[in-house]
From TrEMBL, chain A:
The lineage of its organism: Bacteria, Bacillati, Actinomycetota, Actinomycetes, Streptosporangiales. Residues 251-292 are annotated as: Disordered. Its main location: membrane. Its EC number is 7.1.1.-. This is NADH-quinone oxidoreductase subunit J. Residues 262-276 have a biased composition (Basic and acidic residues). Keywords: Cell membrane, Membrane, NAD, Oxidoreductase, Quinone, Transmembrane, Transmembrane helix. The chain crosses the membrane at residues 6-23, 28-46, 52-73, 93-115, 144-165. The keyword Membrane applies. It catalyses: a quinone + NADH + 5 H(+)(in) = a quinol + NAD(+) + 4 H(+)(out). NDH-1 shuttles electrons from NADH, via FMN and iron-sulfur (Fe-S) centers, to quinones in the respiratory chain. Couples the redox reaction to proton translocation (for every two electrons transferred, four hydrogen ions are translocated across the cytoplasmic membrane), and thus conserves the redox energy in a proton gradient. It comes from Bailinhaonella thermotolerans. GO terms for molecular function: NADH dehydrogenase (ubiquinone) activity; oxidoreductase activity; quinone binding.
From TrEMBL, chain C:
Keywords: Cell membrane, Membrane, NAD, Oxidoreductase, Quinone, Translocase, Transmembrane, Transmembrane helix, Transport. NDH-1 is composed of 14 different subunits. Subunits NuoA, H, J, K, L, M, N constitute the membrane sector of the complex. Belongs to the complex I subunit 4L family. GO terms for cellular component: NADH dehydrogenase complex; plasma membrane. It is an enzyme of class 7 (translocase). This is NADH-quinone oxidoreductase subunit K. The keyword NAD applies. It is a multi-pass membrane protein. Its EC number is 7.1.1.-. GO terms for biological process: ATP synthesis coupled electron transport. It comes from the Bacteria.
Length: 292, 646, 98
């Protein structure tokens, strides 16, 4: 009885979450939906006399794998969102048709499944003294070879990820001296003013004031400014809002086309700018040498 | 199978054991060597080429004469001598040994070929003296003599066929000798192609003989000829007749002979009068055991001969070209020979006798025509001749003797031989005898008419010469052969026929004819013939001798036009054979282009088009591929569900 | 009861498959693949209970392990590609076409 209720509730929840995963525009929302699906599946495992698997599902799948997804999403672009326009003709229609057809076929096939007796795992687990000991017995006795091989696989996967993610430096790491020299040769020798300097509030989006009282545009966080201008987040104070508007207007004058309506590239450019800042001294040194 | 022969031919063929007969292969080898030397030597042999060619021909004649006397020295039963030469095709069941058969028939031909051939060689020295290619001419003449000798001397059908093809080749080369003349090249091609139709028949006949008898040698075939079925013998006989029609220019393969006059006159004399065109008669006479066993085939031979003799005579009446008139005459006379050969043992010897006398007087008349052309700047139009007898006496006299021979004037060669043919034709039983004899009689009358017409137009009457024509007698090198041939025209017939000399001579080969009573000068048939001949001459005198001959050919009646157009032979050939052939080739090309090529190209285009459309599946997008994979998985699931395993 | 679980598994699997076909962001595609794997796990666990032995759970366990390894490597690949191409769209790798 309890199982029935659990099943029906969780079934509806997981199907809704799966649909949400597939049809969401923002990638982060899809990741959260996936988390919902995994958690409901964990509950279903628990209901089906598989407590070990339920816990492993939560810890490994939801806790590790899904978090890995979220990290990569942050690297790639948190606010990246797919456009709704489908580039391949007929893909959506055919995908819907084939997917539905496949589902119908599977369900029809399941109808042919012969269920024997009352499903229960108590007999199997009782002699071993519980679910976990029974599983342990199976893993380390009958399937020990598969176990060893999968551990090798895990090691290989970790190594592979390290190799793939590794970046060789093609230029020597700029030393403190290089950075200092670049700073003095560059446009801004002094550190950028932190936000809120000489201001009356210490919010992150409060601009710094120059000695003559005007807003230092260098101190405004461009991301926050854009969000505030576009209305995604409210400004903390009117001064912050003014400064944001000023900065966005200045940026739009310089590069009007590059920033609007990007799909997955905005954060990418942020990262690129961060990289470029680190390598700017070396890069600035090189063109100077070339122009000589 | 009952034999129609009163006495069988001598079955035993003795083998030559050295001596002259053992060397008889020289007859073929010498002219062949001459041709090879002159052709391979090329321009270096230009200075002596004509002399070498003539010498080879004369040497061959000497060997032939020696062999003839050797043969005469034997008794009649031993007059068939085989000379083994070499194994030609030892291929299992087909074992063809090349050898020669020297017997009365082959030696008669050999004498005719080498004798008349040598005279024509001598004549050509003078006739072709202004031609820069004279050496090549003699090499081809030698080639012809060698091939023709092989044809008549071989002791098996394959050797005969090699010689047959060789003379065909020589004829082609010589008709088209003046290669720069398109008409000559076309005529040579026509001769070769029409001959090929006949050769096809001959080849199939030889195949049938081999299939029936297991060998192609004369000896075994003729020995066992009476054991084969009449059907086979008739088929072989008709096929051999087809071959003979091609080579001898009989109906229906007669169209090439008049066009062959494009070649130089010695060629017309040697090949298309005396020798090559008689090869068909030789073939039929040589195969007499086969024909004797197939009466239907014999009747076909006789009918073809009778029809051709009339056709040739009619054509000859309307030709203004002197050579073409003589060619029509040749066609007609060979028709006589075929008619005689189709009468069975009664006629073979007579046919050969007429063949030999014809060789003399026709070659003589052709050489005479060449002499006239030489005098009239190579103009062949008789309407431009007239009154030449005073200017060219020797030519006139020799030509006249030949003319008297051909019309059958009593005492001259043709009188004896032609009358025998007409008598033998009438001697056949029933309606057949009257029809064949009547045709021969009518032919004699028409022959007299057109030959007289030729004589009157050329040598008598007013001079109708061109302004720049200065006719003169030919040099001795040309007139001496004329004289020698005229002697043959005069005395040849009497020599052969009186006393049945030639008939007895040929008995070992063709057997003794039944009911032969020798030559009767006052036989009723002979007298009727003389009357008709006289009528023909008189008519020609009235039309051409008394009245002036117009220089421009008049339009003529329907019959004249009919005869001028060779009895529409060419038109019939074109409409029956040439146009359907052209349509067939055009249809084949169309079918090949549209059908076969269309199929192949269409297939390729189809494949190309299909692949062009199929490649659009490769969009490059991973999602499309994923869709295809998913679609496949769905199909597999569906299939499993259907089968019941899901 | 088992059939209910199997139907749910089939549904989740199909939804995951449709997601793979429709979404263009590589990471979201990957997440849909994870969804399909989870659906398979559910089916395995249901069958294990039906048959009364734990083999299905063992297999599901190993599936989880392998899925984790796969996610690690796959995401590393995506990050590497993203670094050079500045794009995480699946449609950008479309040069091998007609």
């Amino acid at each position: 009885m309890g199982e029935q209720i659990t099943f029906w509730v969780l079934a509806v929840v997981s199907v809704a979450a799966a649909l949400g995963l597939v049809f969401n525009r923002k990638a982060v929302y899809s990741a959260i939906m996936l988390a919902v699906v995994m958690l409901s599946l964990a509950a279903l495992y628990a209901v089906q006399d598989a407590p070990f698997l339920a816990v492993v599902q939560i810890i490994v799948y939801t806790g590790a794998v899904l978090m890995l997804f979220l990290f990569v999403l942050m690297l790639v672009g948190v606010d990246s969102s797919d456009s709704l326009v489908e580039t391949i003709r007929g893909q959506r229609f055919l995908a819907a048709v084939v997917g539905l057809g496949f589902a119908v076929l599977l369900i029809l096939g399941i109808g042919n499944v012969l269920v024997v007796g009352e499903p229960s795992l108590t007999a199997a687990t009782q002699e071993a003294g519980g679910n976990v000991p029974a599983l342990a017995r199976l893993i380390f006795q009958r399937h020990v070879f598969a176990f060893e091989v999968t551990s090798a696989l895990l090691i290989t996967a970790a190594l592979g990820a390290m190799v793939l993610a590794h970046r060789e430096r093609t230029t020597p790491r700029p030393t403190q001296k290089d950075l200092a020299r670049a700073r003095f040769l560059g446009p801004q020798p002094t550190p950028l003013p932190g936000p809120g300097t000489y201001a009356r509030h210490n919010a992150v989006d409060m601009p710094a004031l120059l000695p003559d009282g005007s807003v230092s545009l260098l101190s405004v966080n461009p991301t926050l400014a854009r969000h505030e201008v576009e209305g995604d987040t409210p400004a903390t104070t009117p001064e912050a809002r003014e400064a944001a508007v000023l900065l966005v207007a200045a940026e739009d004058r310089e590069e009007p086309a590059a920033e609007a309506g990007e799909e997955t590239r905005t954060a990418g450019e942020a990262e690129a700018r961060a990289e470029a800042d680190a390598e700017a001294p070396a890069a600035a040194a090189r063109p100077e040498e070339e122009t000589k | 199978m009952t034999s129609l022969l009163a006495a069988a031919p001598a079955a035993e063929i003795a083998q030559a054991s050295g001596g002259v007969l053992g060397l008889s292969w020289l007859m073929i080898a010498l002219p062949l060597a001459g041709a090879a030397i002159l052709l391979v030597g090329g321009r270096r042999t230009n200075s002596f080429g004509h002399l070498l060619g003539t010498a080879m021909s004369l040497a061959s004649f000497v060997v032939a004469v020696l062999a003839f006397f050797e043969l005469l020295g034997r008794t009649a039963e031993q007059r068939r001598v085989g000379v083994e030469l070499f194994d030609f095709i030892p291929a299992g069941q087909l074992d063809v040994k090349m050898g020669l058969l020297i017997d009365p028939l082959s030696i008669s031909f050999a004498l005719l070929i080498t004798g008349v051939g040598s005279l024509i060689h001598i004549y050509s020295i003078g006739y072709m003296s202004h031609d820069p290619d004279r050496r090549r001419f003699f090499s081809y003449l030698n080639l012809f003599v060698a091939a023709m000798l092989l044809l008549v001397l071989a002791d098996n059908y394959v050797g005969l066929y090699i010689g047959w093809e060789g003379v065909g080749l020589a004829s082609y080369l010589l008709i088209g000798f003046w290669q720069f003349k398109p008409s000559a090249a076309v005529a040579a091609k026509k001769a070769f192609i029409v001959n090929r139709v006949g050769d096809f028949g001959l080849a199939i006949g030889i195949f049938t003989l081999f299939a029936t008898f297991g060998t192609v040698a004369y000896g075994p075939i003729f020995e066992h000829a009476d054991k084969a079925s009449t059907g086979i013998l008739t088929a072989v006989g008709l096929l051999l007749l087809l071959g003979a029609c091609g080579k001898s220019a009989q109906l229906p393969l007669q169209s090439w002979l008049l066009d062959a006059m494009e070649g130089p006159t010695p060629v017309s004399a040697l090949i298309h009068a005396a020798t090559m065109v008689t090869a068909g008669v030789y073939l039929i006479t040589r195969s007499n055991p086969i024909f004797d066993g197939a009466p239907t085939a014999q009747l076909a031979v006789a009918i073809v001969g009778a029809a051709t003799l009339l056709a040739g005579a009619i054509i000859g009446c309307a030709k203004d070209d002197i050579k073409k008139a003589l060619a029509g005459s040749t066609m007609s006379q060979i028709g006589y020979m075929m008619l005689a050969a189709g009468l069975g043992p009664a006629g073979y010897a007579i046919a050969i006798a007429h063949l030999i006398t014809h060789g003399f007087f026709k070659a003589g008349m052709f050489l005479g025509a060449g002499s006239v052309m030489h005098a009239m700047n190579d103009d062949v139009n008789m309407r431009k001749y007239g009154g030449l007898r005073k200017v060219m006496p020797i030519t006139f006299i020799t030509f006249g003797l030949g003319y008297l021979a051909i019309i059958g004037f009593p005492g001259f060669a043709g009188y004896f031989t032609k009358d025998l043919i007409i008598e033998a034709a009438f001697g056949q039983e029933g309606v057949r005898g009257y029809l064949l004899g009547g045709a021969a009689l009518l032919g004699a009358a028409i022959t007299a008419f057109y030959m007289s017409r030729l004589m009157f137009m050329t040598f008598f009457g007013e001079k109708r010469w061109d302004k720049d024509a200065h006719p003169h007698e030919s040099p001795p090198v040309m007139t001496w052969p004329l004289i020698l041939l005229a002697i043959g025209s005069v005395g040849g017939g009497a020599f052969l026929v009186l006393g049945d000399r030639f008939i007895h001579f040929l008995e070992p080969v063709v057997g003794k004819p039944e009911n032969h009573h020798g030559f009767n000068p006052v036989a009723p048939v002979g007298l009727i013939t003389l009357v008709l001949v006289a009528a023909g001459v008189a008519l020609a005198w009235v039309m051409y001798g008394r009245r002036p001959v117009p220089v421009e050919a008049p339009r003529g009646s329907f019959l004249t036009v009919f005869a001028r157009r060779d009895l529409y032979g060419d038109a019939i050939n074109e409409s029956l054979l040439m146009r359907p052939g052209q349509w067939l080739t055009r249809f084949a090309v169309f079918f090949d282009n549209r059908g076969v090529d269309g199929l192949v190209n269409g297939l390729a285009a189809g494949v190309g088009g299909t692949s062009g459309r199929l490649r659009r599946l490769q969009t490059g997008f991973a999602r499309s591929y994923a869709l295809s994979m998913f679609f496949g998985a769905a199909i597999v699931a569906g299939a499993l569900l259907l089968v019941g395993n899901l | 009861m088992t059939t209910h679980y199997l139907v749910l598994s089939a549904l989740l699997f199909s939804i995951g498959a449709i997601g793979v076909l429709i979404r263009r962001n590589a990471i979201v595609v990957f997440m849909c693949v994870e969804l399909m794997l989870n659906a398979a796990n559910l089916a395995l666990v249901a069958f294990a209970r039906m048959h009364g032995n734990l083999d299905g759970q063992i297999i599901a366990f190993f599936v989880m392990v392998v899925a984790a390894a796969e996610v690690v490597v796959g995401l590393a690949i995506i990050v590497t590609i993203f670094r050079t191409r500045r794009s995480a769209s699946v449609d950008d790798v479309n040069l091998l076409k007609y």
